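Researcher: Hi, I'm a grad student and pretty new to this. My advisor asked me to get structures for two proteins we've been looking at. I'm not sure of the right format, so I'll just paste the first sequence and hope you can take it from there.
Model: That works fine. Here's the first sequence with its structure tokens right after it:
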Amino acid sequence: QGPFLQLTRDRTTTVPSKYILTKTHCNAFCADCKPKNYLETPRSFEVSCRSGKRALIDETGQLAKQAVTYDQSLVAKAVHMFRNPLDNVVARFHLEYNTAKSKKGSIWMETHPYNQTGFATWCKEMDDTSLLPTMRWIDPELMDLLRKVPCHQEFFRYVQWHNLAFDVTRGRGVPVHVIHYHDYSENFEGTLTNLLEFLELPRTGKVEPFHAGKEYGSYYTKKQRGAIKRLIQEFASVDTWENVKDYAF
């Protein structure tokens, strides 16, 4: 049932004696979708974290994909990654832009340029149709705060994702190693060493250089950044807030 280690041609691949690092986005990260599509429970989120698709040869001899949910006993440790929410949400816009190249066509790309203007347009369109402020557990004070935050659903999903990730690993008793995106640019060697020690893996081969992504705090006004920080603090669990409170809002 996997997960499987890909064997690369012309490269010697060995199976680690203890842990293999895999990647999952879990769930609750859809863009421009209704709350029913992104509100998750710890159980549904945990199942999505160990679900995916595997490749196999079908009855016609062709390569096909098959949905699979791996057994929870396979998960022995977890690496939990954070990125500044201001940058993360802009990166989500960039992903949507790149997807639009093949799915939405040139008109969408013209009205949503790959810059601050396009990002603001994207946020406004989602905010104008957002159902999150209408949920019964959103009181008038929260509703007012949501309306001050551009892309408020994106920031809510960001907080919910990290809240659930901590809930799941704590509930399963899984040891967690937290890495912040900026750790790689500020202390690459130390970050890499700590990660390998956590995974109990030796350091072998050539280390590829790390190319840091851009920062996008300038895409927001000062008032918007303040409202974003208040919104995140409002919805964040203790663990999530502890990891995001020192970001430059």
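Researcher: Oh nice, that was easy. Here's the second one.
Model: And its structure:
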Amino acid sequence: MKPYLLHIHDRPLTMVKFNYDGDFFLTCGKDGECCLIRSDDCTRVGTYHPVGDKAGAVFAIDITMDSRYVVTASADGKLIFYTFEGEQVHSVNHGGILKYVEFNQKPGEQNMVLTCNDKFKSSAELVPNRIMVWQFQPPKRLLSIDNDLPMKATKVKWGPFDETLVSIFEEGYIIIWDAVKGTKIHQMDAHKGPVTGLNFTEDRMLMISCSKDMSAKLWSMDEEYTMVKSFETDRPLNDAAISPLYNAEKDPKYHILMGGGQDA
């Protein structure tokens, strides 16, 4: 395996996201750039730019399973949808400082996105901390969780079968919400420090969380939401992932990957 060193952003990188087939990956950063890169030789195919003004810092990016559409979430409160080829499809004035976005997980019917934003006070209005679900085509707000949100969420993802929403918080909590009604289903006092990462197996029935408290934990995503195993490390963790071969029919891999270190 030959390593590649890429320097394609002028400011800190905020997210790297592979497509479902793994032949391309997307990057976004605080410089407002969103890049599409080929996996095999790491050549940059192109960039995603909104029509009109240059985007502010882009904190999150996602791509549909069939690699037809891309969505970006930026600090200026804009949720922008593109075709894979780079043509802008929709721009939604979401409001707040957008921190995360993710398409729903139903293959062939990915017509919803899940977002979370930090509160932002402008001369016109005060946008609170929120978790929201939006319809993609045509753009329409389907759900907003704000009054019941105890604190700002740092990341939020779809749960199994798109029936729940899973959010993480700097206070160490993980909260499960109903994806249709927006009601709180379960709250876990998961970590002693800020929860920094959240990932799943492909069927989303097993979840891993990690934290600055130097631990990562595996959780079952059935109705009990029990902790399966805890992993202690010697440094704060920024992210953790479960092997994509965990559910493989032949030679499954029961591995996890963790990354972290001291803040600069």
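Researcher: Is there anything I should tell my advisor about the second?
Model: You could mention this: The chain has a mean pLDDT of 93.
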